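pasting for the record
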Amino acid sequence: MKPKKTAKIIDGKKISAAILADLRRDIAMLRDKGVTPGLAVVLAGADPASEVYVKAKRRTCAEIGVESFSHDLPENCTEKRLLKLIDKLNGDSRVHGILVQLPLPRHISEKRVLEAILPEKDVDGFHPVNVGRLLNGEECFASCTPAGCQALLQRSGYDPAGKHVVIVGRSNIVGKPLAALLIQKAAGANATVTICHSRTRNIGKFTREADILVAAMGVPEFIKPRMVRKGAIVIDVGVNRIPDQTRKSGTRLVGDVAFAGVAKKARAITPVPGGVGPMTIAMLMSNTVKAACRASGNASKRT
């Protein structure tokens, strides 16, 4: 009896490393012209997951030559103080990109904070101007996780053009902007897109129709093998920490896809960790370098 084949692993670490290598060359070009890309990362509060993400972003900045401006605010900081800081960063010519780590403390309006960032410095792609431009197919900063998903598909040789992409999740951070990216008349797009969500009846009916299935709902191992068409490409955006007494930490990370079972049916799949996560940071760096190129009047083949 022949052993069952398992899916090809789409290695986000390897692909993100290649993107960062390209960016290093752009950064060297900018530095030769007296421009150092600058990213301001603002962390409000002490959310453990946010602290880990921010640390990784700042570390990547140091590795590729982006100047990082760190602003850590206490949990009880006022909205007025945060908005005042953003206004200051908007006017700082050394800062080409501004990232405010989410979630924010409950007493601060996420909407007001994100809208306070200048669109040309909104490297997270959350400002309404960039969201609108994305939907219109105009030049903009695309949200980093959706852009990372698209780059994973392109660089792995899985062109979405003409394919049926089913996205499970309708958040403003992943689901909706990814759909907007993939329906454009553009390279790496031209897909037929279906979005499923918590009110979708019989989700499995739709997920089994997917040539490319994207899981982005934040529910541990929600996508089971029976929900996946044989030979599908599966992109798992979820990052969930679940109890595991076999681990020293008492927990382990899993995605929104039941990896072991789905990997036996899919053609290719992203792991958690090591799939979409590294790509999100890579695309943040790409947007920052793009912002620096635009602000300084320098061109790059990646802008």
